[in-house]
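Q: Hi! First time asking for a complex rather than a single chain. Here are the components, and I think there are two in total. Is that enough to go on?
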Amino acid sequence: MHMKWKTEDGGWSPYLAGSLVGLLAIVSVYATTEWMGKTNYLGASTTFVRAAGMLEQMLAPEHVTANEYFTKEKVRVDWQFMLVLGIFLGALISSATDRSFKLERLPPVWEQRFGSSLTKRATGAILGGIIAMIGVRMADGCPSGHGLSGMMQLSVSGLIAMGMFFGVGVLVAVLVYGRKTS
Amino acid sequence: MSIDQGLGLMTGILFGFLLQKGRVLRFERQVGAMLMKDMTILKFMLSAILVGMVGITLLTDAGLATFRHKPMNLGAVVLGGALFGAGWAVMGYCPGTSIGALGEGRWHAVFAVVGMLIGAALYAEFYPFFKSTVLAWKDFGKIGVPETLGVSAWGIIPMFWVGIILLFRWFEKKGL
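A: Yes, that's all I need. Here is the structure of the assembled complex.
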């Protein structure tokens, strides 16, 4: 197996970038245990709960205080919240410096299948987002929390969650995008 | 900014940088994996897992970190995982990559983010219902594969490495 460390578009081999994420995860597990007194694993989806809680607080603060789930997950800007903001910044820095930053109106694959209507894409993405987030909160983790962090710890839940994510993802993707026989 | 927040921000910047360099933030990469045409995101994730599992198991053995398994709650993981898979295919992003995609200019990812915020608010609203139904079916607790099988993690990790490397070789041979 010979491989290149750079891709044609100036990116890095996924094996290289992925391995470096593995190293980052190890350092992060060590650093959070050392400085925060508790091991924290990479994850992203709880931040969406906290952000939703913050937005709701602007409209109905008592409602958020009274909600069992918001109380359980604690609506605050914590380690993971900043990590998710960091993902935005890191992607911005990387793409701006290697000129892969691109303002994109629609994903090309979506456009091929569903045409150039922004309303259609918005509807699909919002509905997909609602279903995905309900699922991920039910499962208690996303591809970062269950997929990366769970499997790194050899968690039973991580393995099964990843199997479900991909298994059903493949099925639905084939149904949604697969009919491109022309 | 507290030390927790500073640490989170630094880790996130590096994570986002590497996600972008690996080119895994793209809609077409995520959907490409689900259509089994482009395995970039699997190569990326599985490489991270292979490296991470060795270091994290070593740290835990040395008492420098603790495992925090998420509960193996059967209904939650199976049904929740299925719902996520379905939504993921349509949306084309997962929670972390949607934010990263915005960072590299793919502004249409904002719709995915809005959808996920609505989903989070709905889940919070209906939490008491889920708690008394799906979440109450069968919980095996916070378990790892090694103790479930009654073997050491070091008995499993080498098999994992061999299996994944064979899978990588197959991906490269097939040009996926």
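A: Chain A has a mean pLDDT of 94. Let me know if you'd like any chain examined more closely.
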